Amino acid sequence: MKRLMIALAAVVMAAALPALANPTGSYTKTCSGITMSGDTLQASCTRMDGSKAQTELPFASSCVGDIGNVNGVLACAGPNGSYSITCTGISVSGNTLNATCRTKAGQMVPATLPGFQGFQGNISNCDGKLQNGPC
């Protein structure tokens, strides 16, 4: 009986917790099956060729501005720039933009851009280093 009461209490408490809302963004126009698991946004998104891709965006709540669908991949669209083509794991922590970026030699290296303030123009990947403006 005690186990039944504990199980019932757990069900009632879980039902009372608010569900985490899916973040808004332009991705909702071309993605379906959208869910949040902790702080990771998951969806099936349409690629440019019309096929679907399962994708996820860790730390979705850290996105500054829009969350978009970039050829079947969920991405923070706030920090604008060409760097997003050659960088992955893009996140913002405080005022620092963080990513893992490809160098000219093809290696993936950690990169940061301190002083990031959201929409601030083009951000480039200059041989594995993030930079405001062109290289």
> Average pLDDT across residues?
79
Describe the largest sheet: 3 strands, antiparallel
Termini, distance in Å? 69 Å
Query: What Rg, in angstroms, do the CA atoms define?
Result: 19 Å
* Topology as a string of helices (H) and strands (E): HEEEEEHEEEEE
**Biggest sheet, spatial arrangement of strands:** 1-2-3
How many discrete structural domains?
1
General form: globular
Strand elements, count: 10
What share of the residues lie within helices?
10-25%
Q: What structural class results from the helix and strand content?
A: mainly beta
Unreliable parts: 2-19
Structure description:
Helix content is 14%, strand content 41%. The chain has 2 helices and 10 strands; from the N terminus they run αβββββαβββββ. Strand 7 (96-102) and strand 8 (108-114) form a beta hairpin. The protein has one domain (24-130). It is mainly β. It has a 3-stranded antiparallel sheet, with no helix packed on it. Strands 6-7-8 form a 3-stranded antiparallel sheet. A two-stranded antiparallel ribbon has the order 4-5.
Q: Which tags fit this structure?
A:
single chain, 135 residues, mainly beta, 2 helices, 10 strands, globular
Short description:
The chain is mainly beta and 135 residues long.
Task: Map the helices and strands.
Elements: H1 2-16, E1 31-37, E2 40-46, E3 52-57, E4 67-70, E5 73-76, H2 83-86, E6 87-93, E7 96-102, E8 108-114, E9 123-125, E10 130-132
Antiparallel strand pairs: 1-2, 2-3, 4-5, 6-7, 7-8, 9-10
